[in-house]
Amino acid sequence: MLGYVTIGANDAETAHRFYDAVLGTLGWKAHMTFGEWRGYSLDGKGEGQSVWVCKPFDGAPASVGNGMMVAFSARDHAQVDIFHAVAMANGGSDEGAPGPRPDYGPHWYAAYLRDPTGNKLAIVFNQP
Q1: In CATH, what number does 4-55+68-126 get?
Q2: What is the pLDDT of residues 74-122, one digit of tens each?
Q3: Which of 7, 36, 53, 60 counts the most CB atoms within 10 A of its CB?
Q4: Contact criterion met (CB below 8 Å) for 69 and 5
């Protein structure tokens, strides 16, 4: 199990606005902000898995990792649709509109997108 994921951002303000909106569709909220770092967790409690969005610690520009993607779990098809729509309305770019992905499994319903920095994200529902 993952403890946390760090997602690099070149423009922290834009990235935080994007992640405030899209993670909010999953019930995740910021639990801590310091400087250009913001941590998100379920209900903003700071417990369990978390996502940190920030400028890289080494001071170099954030860059997109080839093959790196963060996938978030959805509770149903509607949550996939809403996450994708909110991402598009907040500076994201489409990498695959919401819909079934039968090549990945009979119940796989997902959307793929990029955040304002270019990091690849997925939102997935995979239950019968």
Answers
A1: 3.10.180.10
A2: 999 999 999 999 999 999 999 999 999 999 999 999 999 999 999 999 9
A3: 53
A4: no
pTM over 0.70: yes
Going from N- to C-terminal start, the domains of the chain cover: 4-55+68-126
In order of 4, 11, 49, the CA distances from 1 in angstroms are 9, 29, 8
- In angstroms, what CA-CA distances link 52 with 55, 77, 107, 111, 119? 10, 26, 30, 21, 13
Report the chain's terminal Cα–Cα distance, integer Å: 23
Residue-wise pLDDT tens digits, 52-86: 999 998 999 999 988 899 999 999 999 999 999 99
